[in-house]
Design a protein that fits this description.
3 strands; Arc Repressor Mutant, subunit A; WH-like_DNA-bd_sf; MarR family transcriptional regulator; DNA-binding transcription factor activity; elongated; 172 residues; mainly alpha; 7% strand; 3-stranded antiparallel β-sheet; 63% helix
Length: 172
């Protein structure tokens, strides 16, 4: 009889974990849709535009490091942003092999339309937790990732359901 009670409790707990995971996924999905609706951009595109704004005229390599995406992925994002007139790319006067990107007026306008990114809200809330609680959450989330088979997956610190894996070929 005790084994039955334990199984029901375990099932309830498993259910609660799956519901919590689904809420996280849903929050990320809804935020991605809000960003797309308000600005016409994906989360990675907004991150790249923000980084160009913050870093000034910048190379693809430096942008790649700033947004934690591969250079190939950033190049694809820059191609799309340039096609839409949100950035301009140009070659360095000193070294023609170096290409810089800069925001256009349309790029600055698009950024103003974009709502805050979900991970920005998370960073602020997470910073308000004690160091002990932060470490507990990291350990728990690492455990959840392992249970889902995602321990070895490469992931950028972007909360977006359509965020690319490094070097992926997804349309951004």
């Amino acid at each position: 009889m005790r084994a039955v009670a334990r199984k029901e409790t375990n099932t309830d707990t498993t259910h609660d974990v799956l519901v919590a995971l689904r809420r996280i996924i849903r929050a990320i999905d809804l935020q991605s849709k809000r960003i797309a609706k308000s600005s016409g951009l994906t989360t990675p595109q907004v991150m790249v535009l923000q980084s160009i704004r913050d870093l000034g005229e910048v190379t693809t390599g430096r942008l790649s490091g700033a947004v934690s995406l591969s250079q190939a992925t950033v190049t694809t994002i820059l191609d799309r942003l340039e096609q839409r007139g949100l950035i301009e790319r140009y070659r360095s006067d000193r070294d023609r092999r170096i290409v810089h990107a800069k925001l256009t007026a349309a790029g600055r306008k698009a950024l103003k339309k974009a709502p805050p990114l979900l991970h920005e809200k998370f960073i602020e809330a997470f910073a308000g937790l004690s160091a002990k609680r932060q470490m507990e959450m990291i350990a728990t989330l690492d455990d959840v990732a392992a249970l889902l088979g995602g321990s070895d997956l490469d992931a950028a610190p972007i909360l977006d359901v359509d965020a690319p894996a490094a070097g992926g070929n997804k349309a951004y």
